[in-house]
C-alpha cells in the first residue's frame, strides 16, 4: 500500500493506523499547495480531489477520505482491535465518533489554516473548535480512549487534530481529561514513530 501524505496534515491519522496495525506501506509525500509529488508528478492524477490522505492499494485502486481509510486499515488487521467488529453496536459507536470528528471538529479547524481569513472569523471558528473539544473532554471522563480502554482509529484522528491545536497555541488547561488523553496517545510508540517519520516534534 502507498499512503499519500503531507507532514502533520490529517493524513497523520491513517499513518498512525498503519503503524498500529503493523501493515507494510510506502509513504509518498505530497505538496498540497502545488498538487505535486516529490518526484514532480501531478498529484491530481492520483487523487483528483487534490487532498490527503489517499491510500493506494496493491490492486491499483485509490481510496480517499480519512475516516474510510482508517476503517479499511483496521479491517485488515482485526487482531489489533483498532475498530470493533463490523455490524456490532460498538462499530456504529466508532462510526459516530469518526463522523463527529470529521464533520464537527475537522471542518471547524480547516478555516484556521487559511492565510486570508480575517482574525474575527478565525476567532469564531476557534471558539467553535474549543466547544467541541470541551464536549469530548466530558466524554473522556473515566476513559483512557474515546471508545473506553481500547485505542482505536478514532483516537489517531483526534490526536492529529490536537497536534493542530498545539501549533495554534490552544489552551486546554481547563480540560484535564483531554490533556491527559493527549499525553497518553502521544506516548504510544507507534504514534511517536509516525511523528518521527513525518519530521514532526512530539506533541507536548
UniProtKB/TrEMBL annotation:
It holds the Pfam family GST_N_2. Keywords: Transferase. PROSITE patterns: GST_CTER, GST_NTER. It comes from Bradyrhizobium centrolobii. This is Glutathione S-transferase. Transmembrane segments: none annotated. InterPro entries: Glutathione-S-Trfase_C-like, Glutathione-S-Trfase_C_sf, Glutathione_S-Trfase, Glutathione_S-Trfase_N, GST_C, Thioredoxin-like_sf. Residues 87-204 form the GST C-terminal domain. GO terms for molecular function: transferase activity. Residues 1-81 form the GST N-terminal domain.
Amino acid at each position: 500500500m502507498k499512503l499519500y501524505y503531507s507532514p502533520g496534515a490529517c493524513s497523520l491519522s491513517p499513518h498512525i493506523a498503519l503503524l498500529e496495525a503493523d501493515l507494510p506501506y510506502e509513504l509518498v509525500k505530497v505538496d498540497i499547495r502545488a498538487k505535486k509529488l516529490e518526484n514532480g508528478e501531478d498529484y491530481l492524477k492520483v487523487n483528483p480531489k487534490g487532498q490527503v490522505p489517499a491510500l493506494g492499494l496493491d490492486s491499483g485502486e485509490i481510496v480517499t477520505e480519512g475516516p474510510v481509510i482508517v476503517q479499511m486499515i483496521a479491517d485488515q488487521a482485526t487482531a489489533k482491535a483498532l475498530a470493533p467488529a463490523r455490524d456490532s453496536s460498538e462499530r456504529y459507536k466508532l462510526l459516530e465518533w469518526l463522523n463527529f470528528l470529521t464533520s464537527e471538529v475537522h471542518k471547524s479547524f480547516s478555516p484556521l489554516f487559511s492565510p486570508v481569513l480575517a482574525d474575527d472569523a478565525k476567532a469564531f471558528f476557534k471558539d467553535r473548535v474549543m466547544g467541541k473539544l470541551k464536549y469530548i473532554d466530558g466524554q473522556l471522563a473515566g476513559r483512557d480512549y474515546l471508545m473506553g480502554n481500547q485505542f482505536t482509529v478514532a483516537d489517531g484522528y483526534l490526536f492529529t487534530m490536537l497536534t493542530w491545536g498545539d501549533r495554534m497555541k490552544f489552551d486546554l488547561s481547563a480540560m484535564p481529561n483531554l490533556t491527559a488523553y493527549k499525553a497518553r496517545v502521544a506516548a504510544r510508540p507507534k504514534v511517536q514513530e509516525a511523528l518521527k517519520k513525518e519530521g514532526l516534534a512530539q506533541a507536548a
